[in-house]
Amino acid sequence: MSDAVITVDQLNLDYKLGNRWLSALKDISFGIMPDEIHGLVGESGSGKSTLALAMMNFVAPNARITSGAVYLDGVDLLKKNSAEMRQIWGRDISLVPQDALAALNPSYTIGDQISEITRLHEGLSKRAAWDRAIEMLRQVRINDPKAIAQRYPHQLSGGMQQRVTIAMALSTHPRLLVLDEPTTALDVTTRAVIVDLFRELIRENHAAALYVSHNLGLVAQLCDRVTVLYGGEVMACAPVQELYKSPYHPYTISLLASLPHVTTGTETRLPTIEGVAPSLAERPHGCVFATRCPIAIDKCHTEKPPLEVVQGDRLIKCWRWREIATGEIVIDTSPKEHPMDTAPRAGVVLNANALNKEFDRPTLTDRLLMTGKRPVHAVDNVSVRIRQRSTLGLVGESGSGKTTLARLILGLETADSGTLELLDVPLDLTLGKRSKKALRDLQMVFQNPNDALNPFITVGGQLARTIQRLSMKPLTRAAIQTRVLELLNAVRLTDAYVSRFPAELSGGEKQRVAIARAFAADPALIVADEPTSALDVSVQSVILNLLKDLRAAKGASYLLISHDLDVVSYLADWIVVMYLGEIVEQGTVEQVYATPSHPYTEALISAIPVADPTVKRKAIRLGGEQPSPRNLPTGCRFHTRCPRKIGTICETTLPPYTDVGDGHFIRCHIPAEELIALQTSEPLTERKT
Amino acid sequence: MIDAFKQFIRRPLPLLGLLIVAIFILIAVVGPLIAPYRFDEIIRGASRQAPSEAHLFGTDRLGRDIFSRILWGARDIIILPMLTTALSVFFGTCIGLFIGYRGGWVDEVISRLLDSLLAIPALVLALVMLGTIGPSTFGIILVIVILYTPIVARVVRASTLNIRANGYIESAKLRGDTLSYILFREILPGVLPALVVEGALRFSYAIFLTASLGFLGLGVQPPSPDWGRMVNEARESFSQTPWALWYPAGAIALLVIGVNLVSDGLRRVFRYEGQLI
Q1: Looking at the predicted complex, does its ipTM rise above 0.85?
Q2: How distant, in Å, are the alpha carbons of A259, A263, A271, A603, B173 from that of A567?
Q3: pTM strictly above 0.90
Q4: Is A427 within 8 Å of chain B by CB?
């Protein structure tokens, strides 16, 4: 790889844990060519962030590189001392970090921070550096760069902050750009815009880039070549089309198969990868993926496969890749069909009518001081209905009010006005006033499995307490224990988990316990708040399948909150899309995905990157920033960003909430027929030629 | 908990502190039994004696054996602070948990009350109160509890605010758990690390404050062997009997240092909170 911008050659890195040095990266080799966007894909614990930084010779104090080399234009970076590296960092290699706000200094203006880099590396004067900073802000498509340069990081939105870090990284026209999961903190629609920006800027600057991500869709749409990392080792490295369309490594194959997608009409289960990734301390001697590999043979467990060249620059680390390549072995990646009938029944589980919630109302002090403070109207006159055995997917970005709506239904927040009915019985808006019967029927699974369980109480203890509290009559110890074991088994955890503490469980296992707890009293409705967003991709499919199984077995309804339309469309049969406190569209999954669609829904769907590099979604991007919920736009709330805005009517008049057929509602001024015409003339997805 | 203990005794300084405190507690328990003389026993002809074999720490101007007085006095300087610390921790925890969890105007109002108590300097409050009702053990207890409860409540409240946001607390609410269960069984274990450290710190402050009050004559009354008062009494005849000041002062200092070392050790150990309790 003599003409590569950067080549990693047999890199090995250890971490110190307690008193031992544990191998975190083993024999990493790959290269990035000029003008190439190279994706580095892996789950948590795979070592991708460590590798990205190690390539820059940026090693944590408790880590050490034990062998290997990293050649930047032929020069080994690992041989350089910190003084020499300081010349290279920021000038030849730049980093776009994961958390933009944390990476920016809150005490300095944006302009100062961008200037700092060119003043340091190019010796520019204050004036010249400032002008260059303004120019960089313009390049990252920031409107009014002069004003932004004067501002401080906390005054900018998440998307803007990330643009600033990109501007900083590009200001010296580096040879290599390292992007460490740079969009994780961003909303879906903002992310789409930023990723478009990455693509353009990297091409314009003729830079090579390393894009680290766990999101297979993003990598498919953005990258030219991809390296897959697992357990600190390279599993495969290939051009993006080959990796996604004809993968040779069992891990890649299984991972791609386990991604949720729209499955309408059929009752299916995703293929999953069983087991958990090995911890640093328990590195297997053989292939690091062998314990979870569907086609592992004895040799895989005892001998580590070498990193072989398939052809050209395609690499693979598997004993059996040839058999996969020739088609001798085929790993079954089709979703499993389940014959159970889970069509929603007619009855209604939950009826929420005209719910309202405001936060941060002006207090007496505010009024006296005339601060002009306006409240946040988080949920504005929202009504939803959830039927029996149905899953309602509540979709929206931050500030949409979806989480608040769910909390109002649960009673964790008390609605200002409106009514709730659970199984046709009026439900008090205040949690404390609800009957035990009501509590039994309405439970929740939280987003973050790490704080869903009390770290000081055993798994069995927490389940037992829930069972005991929700029971209508007093239960004996034995009865409670039986139920605890029942619940654990239902989520496929063995009896041994009863006496374990949450710290001993993996993220996926904790989430399963949380699900078991939610089902303790056989509720009619479970609110699942982003149940998989904190989990790795390979664990996600296990949890989604579990949720489907339990739904079928117990006949429960779900209120599923998510920003990930793929997850929602996989589980839900009814979708509600929210924007700034209002419902802008609702309907069945088919209706929402097909036209007519609300322009916001269109943008949301378009923003989801498809995990197939040959398929491109039409880019419907939202301009501007999301308005502050304290200062809502007049007329239609979406008009400030709507790509299909028709005129002043959108600014002055509230749009009608119309039924465009079979209970499919859209809140828009554009009539349904026109929407259909507009949206079908330009198809949303197309194959790249 | 065993892991916590093991971690704790691995470091030399906290171990030393633990040893010191253990010795003092031992003295508090068996002191009066092994003391050669009673604390108020005036030995004829033996006043103002320098430390010797007969009188390990010498005698004071009245002819009382200082060594014995220190052994006898250990009780007051340890048991009373222990009691006041325990009470402050108890009340402070209950208040802190409650207002931290409830929030809202209850939190606002009570926090402001606690703030106002915190604003009062310790000795000023002690002088005013004990000056009014007269020095007494009960008075000291009252003063110290009033002074230290708000501090403990603050620490507990801060911890509670952090823990309150966790999913498992909301889960407890959703199953209709009682307030006391949520506060004491769900939240308290998470508060314990900070509480234990603060409790140890309060103990050392309580010892010091009790000794200071004794010094000012507001503590246990003569002839009771209050170390603080012993220091004060020794001031007048310092040129003649310096040992009468050094030994009680040294004892107080050593005890406070010992407790502080323990408190430091606890703080280091509990930095790994969540896994050790």
Answers
A1: no
A2: 9, 10, 14, 17, 28
A3: no
A4: no
